[in-house]
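Cross-posting from the chemistry board since nobody answered there.

I work mostly on the small-molecule side, so proteins are not my area. We synthesized zinc ion and want a rough idea of how it might sit in this target. Sequence and SMILES are below. Is it possible to get a predicted 3D structure of the two together?
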Amino acid sequence: MTVTQQRELQCKWCGYTGALESVSEHVHISNAQVSMQHAVWRCPQCGQTTAVAQWGRDLQFSYKVLEYKRLFRRSTWVAIYDVICAWCGSKATEPAEVNVTVANPVSQRFRYDLYGCRTCGKATAISYLGEIRTHCAERDDVYRSLWYLDPE
Ligand SMILES: [Zn+2]
Ligand SMILES: [Zn+2]
């Protein structure tokens, strides 16, 4: 494993800007904002991983990622976004589920992840295509795996 210094590369977890350690040149991230190859870097300071996709010279997408190791198969990488609770505005959110089923998506192109709020306990759904959009999310009373965006 080589330690490579890449300019303008920053750990998304702790902000460390020193040399990050290359984990992989190209991984597939199941909920990336752009469908491009992502490189993954590990931070020597906090030990967390950051994914980076470079578009041309100027545009760089980078986010926190977590690796889910699977037995005898390639790891799944999941992006973790900074989400503000759509119900109460709290920043104390944490990822709950990737790619949930939504009954009323804004667009069929969108996929949704679910975040839980530690302040109010409610769920926020995000879509992440190009930009992060947040919605209040409510679980169906009967079909517990089905979610509704922005209920009345
Ligand atoms: Zn770090
Ligand atoms: Zn909240």
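Reply from a structural biologist on the board:
Welcome over. Reading the output above for you: Residues 1-6 have pLDDT under 50 and may be disordered. The longest strand covers residues 59-70. Happy to explain the token format if needed.
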